[in-house]
Specification:
Blueprint lengths: L1 H32 L41 H17 L10 H13 L5 H9 L5 H11 L2 H15 L6 H16 L5 H10 L2 E2 L7 H4 L18 H12 L19 H8 L5 E3 L14 H4 L3 E4 L9 E4 L5 E4 L17 H10 L2 H16 L20 H13 L5 H9 L29 E2 L2 H12 L8 H19 L13 H9 L1 H8 L11 H13 L5 H8 L28 H12 L2 H4 E2 L1
Antiparallel strand pairs: 1-3, 2-3, 4-5, 6-7
Helix pairs in contact: 1-23, 2-15, 3-5, 6-7, 8-13, 10-11, 14-15, 14-16, 17-18, 17-21, 21-23
Length: 606
């Protein structure tokens, strides 16, 4: 019996090992075959929707209004985006990529605007819209979807609090607050930033206070004339996030690459925050000693006039000479120390009326949708060391967004997503395939999904029964997923909005228990479909938002022998085959779903 048991265990181990090897090979095959950068799929058989590769291309001579269905305006802005981008293509002898397929577009726009891939019902509705206007109609629908606020709240919560520097309760508070602001059609971005900079109150009553609270720095003891906290972290984060100016470099010395910013600028901004205090800050080592604050995670932010009453903040130059800074904005505008408004309220006004403010938001938003900002490198570091690739376009977008559209985020997004550049394919050609060509936006750059996008997309693709319609179960599942991803891959320390995954991410998906359980309970396997082609199309529509191509169908469903141009998997019986033929098993289709989920085409936003 013992020998038999050992043999059975050995056989089982061998079977599992071979199965794992085969599935790994299948996923590698999918990954190699489905890279959006190099793949051109063939038209699928028996589909009524426009086939991939045969969709109508934009008429170079057509006016934007011929492709426009939005009632929100913005035709002027879309037209000059197209004109100024196309001007650079012409000047640099760049041939833009082809117009992307409508299937690629709905997947791309859905990921960018609402943070997940589209559902099959959403794809079908989109393809029923008038061909010439369906893209602008889709953009409007996505912007009206409450998931829009959630998606951008994910991004901004990470930027404002970082992934690792805050408690889950504070991240949830900030996320909820930002989502509510962005989904409110009356909210201006100026209002959002003003509240983040100047908010007062308790974390459980005014969630906007979490931004300043999380970056107060070190506590200053027994020196009220100098303030209660050094406020160093929030100083640099304020200018970086809202003005696109990195002042952390000038905390200790003048900027080494950008002579415009000096050490004095950092401490002058810092002085605006020196009258701000609280009953502690998240993560303090001694917070638990203060009446259980850390356990309750409730903090209160306030401004006290007798703190730093003279408005002087000392800082030391490298020469050893001590200087003092008074609260003053980057442009030299000074705070009124006797005004009824708090110093932080005055700082909020200086920030939201600065010419840097609109340019910073436009540049960051462009980077979100295009995969690269107008600036050569980081989107939040303006200066001669980081030149702008299309300064005329950046200036015009920032000016119109501020003066004509009152800083409404959805209007800016609508312009970008309706532009020709946003609708291009990610397939490169010999004139736009080099890294130095990326500044001309002549193709869509491949982008890694964020952890949040990946989770939401897996939920859609596998139709997870356990969490659909149950907010608590979904929240718990998402938190477990995020903990696993972030802990496995490290933290971003606030430096990145989107998460840059590696091959480890694919392995995590491959071996993830949650993924396996989701696949095993997917609704798709409980529905009887007429034939194997419908089943394969259903899997592809759920995961990639498109039907399978003829080439994919033939490669997957037809037996592949060694040396015949493909990897041998196994003899594949056919659904609805003659009576004496075996029937395709559900397990096989589960393997296909699993492999597609681990493919480049699923994991990447293209």
């Amino acid at each position: 019996m013992a020998t038999t048991s050992r043999i059975q265990k050995g056989a089982r181990a061998l079977y599992l090992g071979l199965t794992g090897l085969a599935l790994f090979g299948l996923s590698v095959w999918f990954a190699e075959d489905s890279s959006a950068q190099v793949k051109k799929t063939l038209p699928p058989k028996g589909t009524t929707a426009p086939p991939i590769g045969a969709l109508p291309k934009a008429n170079p001579g057509a006016k934007t209004k011929d492709l426009w269905a939005s009632t929100h305006g913005g035709i002027e802005q879309v037209n000059y985006i197209n004109e100024l981008v196309e001007k650079q293509w012409s000047e640099n002898k760049i041939r833009p990529a082809e117009r992307c397929s409508d299937y690629d577009f709905i997947r791309r726009a859905s990921l960018d605007i609402i943070g997940r891939i589209a559902t099959v019902d959403e794809v079908n509705r989109y393809m029923r819209d008038p061909e010439s206007k369906r893209r602008s109609m889709l953009i409007d629908r996505l912007l009206d979807n409450p998931e829009f606020g959630d998606n951008f709240a994910n991004n901004w919560t990470t930027m404002l609090l970082t992934r690792q520097g805050s408690k889950e309760v504070h991240r949830d508070q900030m996320h909820l607050w930002i989502a509510e602001q962005l989904n409110n059609p009356k909210t201006k971005w100026t209002d959002v930033v003003a509240q983040l900079v100047s908010a007062k109150g308790a974390t459980n009553e005014n969630q906007a206070v979490n931004f300043v609270l999380h970056h107060m720095g070190d506590e200053i003891r027994n020196d009220r004339e100098n303030g209660a906290w050094d406020m160093v972290p929030v100083t640099s984060r304020t200018t970086k996030l809202f003005l696109g100016v990195r002042t952390q470099c000038v905390q200790c010395h003048d900027h080494p690459f950008n002579g415009e910013w000096t050490q004095a600028h950092f401490w002058q901004i810092n002085a605006f925050y020196r009258q701000t205090t609280s009953n502690g800050r998240p993560g303090m080592m001694n917070a638990k000693k203060k009446k259980g604050i850390e356990e309750k995670a409730v903090y209160e932010l306030r401004d006290e006039p007798d703190l730093n009453s003279k408005g002087l903040v000392p800082y030391e130059r490298r020469s050893g000479v001590l200087y003092y800074a008074r609260p003053a904005f980057l442009t030299g505008e000074k705070a009124d120390l006797k005004a009824s408004k708090t110093r932080r309220e005055q700082l909020a006004h200086f920030i939201t009326t600065s010419s840097y403010f609109s340019k910073a938001f436009v540049n960051r938003t462009w980077a979100h949708f295009m995969g690269k900002s107008f600036t050569k490198d980081a989107p939040d570091d303006f200066g001669d060391h980081n030149p702008v690739s299309n300064p005329e376009l950046l200036e015009r977008l920032a000016k119109d967004w501020a003066e004509k559209y009152d800083h409404q985020p959805k209007d800016l997004i609508r312009w970008i997503c309706n532009s020709r550049a946003y609708g291009l394919s990610s397939v490169a050609n010999d004139t736009n395939d080099k890294p130095e060509d990326e500044i001309y936006f002549a193709r869509m750059l491949l982008r890694q999904m964020t952890p949040e996008q990946l989770f939401e997309s897996v939920v859609i693709a596998t139709e997870m029964k356990a969490i659909q319609g149950d907010k608590k179960n979904k929240r718990d599942a998402k938190q477990a997923w995020m903990d696993q991803l972030v802990n496995n891959f490290g933290n971003d320390e606030g430096e990145e909005v989107s998460f840059n995954g590696t091959v480890v991410q694919a392995l995590l998906l491959m071996n993830g228990r949650d993924i396996s359980e989701a696949i095993n309970t997917a609704n798709i396997f409980t529905v009887k479909l007429a034939n194997e082609r419908q089943m394969l199309n259903a899997i592809y529509m759920l995961t990639l938002n498109r039907p399978a191509s003829d080439a994919e169908y033939d490669r997957i469903m037809v037996k592949r022998e060694p040396g015949a141009g493909g990897m041998y998997l196994r003899t594949l019986p056919r659904v609805n085959a003659p009576a004496n033929s075996p029937i395709m098993t559900t397990e096989f289709y589960k393997d296909i779903l699993w492999a597609v989920l681990n493919s480049n085409e699923f994991i990447l936003n293209h």
